[in-house]
Amino acid sequence: MTSSAKKIDTSKPMQPSVNLLSPDLCAALSIDKSKITNGDFSVRSPIDGMEIAKFQSDSVASVSDKIGKAHHAYLSWRAVPAPVRGELIRIFGEELRAHKQELGQLVTIEAGKILSEGLGEVQEMIDICDFAVGLSRQLYGLTIASERPNHRMMETWHPLGVIGVISAFNFPVAVWCWNFALAIVCGNAVVWKPSEKTCTTAL
Questions:
Q1: What are phi and psi of 163, to 5 degrees?
Q2: What is residue 125's predicted lDDT score, i.e. its pLDDT?
Q3: For the chain, how big is the Rg over CA atoms in Å?
Q4: Are the beta carbons of 115 and 7 closer than 8 angstroms?
Q5: What's the whole-model pTM score?
Q6: Pairing of strands 152-154, 51-55
Q7: Going by DSSP bridges, is the β-strand pair 41-44/51-55 parallel, antiparallel, or unpaired?
Q8: How far is the C-alpha of 129 from the C-alpha of 88, rounded, in Å?
Q9: What domains, with CATH codes, occur in the chain?
Q10: Among 5, 32, 47, 143, which is 20 to 30 Å from 117 by CA?
Q11: Going by DSSP bridges, is the β-strand pair 189-193/162-166 parallel, antiparallel, or unpaired?
């Protein structure tokens, strides 16, 4: 019996997480280092317990402000044609493909998953983006027979508004993207509350 699974190189010891979350990795992921070093809330890697980031906690007022901004964006976004919304998700999916290795590494650092599972989570994001792009051209409505002469009834889908997504630490990005990609192509805005244990992946 043969296996096509990629062998993991165990000859090199795992380096401390503080070194893994390097300036090069942050730059590749467009993470502003100051955004994860100047806060009051500490995030530690389960790999070695070392601090990898410090975030600024949100207040009730700041959360309300963010929801208000999301609603304001939704009022314009809902009027954008669904295929155009799908194009944005297609571009997002291409960015995920381009940075799959770095993103998978970040999931490993912060969630403590083995690298193959970290990469698998990013692949889940890519897959749902592909699905959402196709969905953006299939938001069909029904045409229904009417009892009135010269009339017909049509079913039209409308977006809901601002969608809240709360994700857990054990699937820090995949579950969020399942909800995000579909909500966006359907014309909604999204506010994400990640796990307090995996805040860096939310960036």
A1: -100, 130
A2: 97
A3: 21
A4: no
A5: 0.79
A6: unpaired
A7: antiparallel
A8: 10
A9: 81-202 (3.40.605.10)
A10: 32
A11: parallel
Inter-residue contact 115 to 102 (CB < 8 Å): no
Tell me the CA distances in angstroms from 33 to 128, 173, 193, one per residue in order.
29, 20, 20
pLDDT confidence of residue 19 = 41
Give residue 26's pLDDT.
67
Predicted confidence at residue 94, as pLDDT, reads 96
Read off the tokens for 143.
């045409």
Check: CB of residue 55 under 8 Å from CB of residue 36: yes
- Give the integer Cα–Cα distance in Å for 182 and 190: 10
**Which token pair is 47?**
């790999």
- pLDDT value at residue 201: 85
- Tokens (6 digits) for 182: 């579909």
Cα–Cα separations (whole angstroms), residue 167 to 88, 196, 202, 203: 22, 10, 10, 14
3-state secondary structure the chain: CCCCCCCCCCCCCCCCHHHHCCHHHHHHCCCCHHHHCCCCEEEECCCCCCEEEEECCCCHHHHHHHHHHHHHHHHHHCCCCHHHHHHHHHHHHHHHHHCHHHHHHHHHHHHCCCHHHHHHHHHHHHHHHHHHHHHCCCCCCCEEECCCCCCEEECCCCCCCEEEEECCCCCCCHHHHHHHHHHHHCCCEEEEECCCCCCHHHC
The whole-number pLDDT of residue 22 equals 61
Listed as ranges, residues in the chain with pLDDT below 50 are: 1-20
For residues 134 and 83, is the Cβ–Cβ distance under 8 A? no
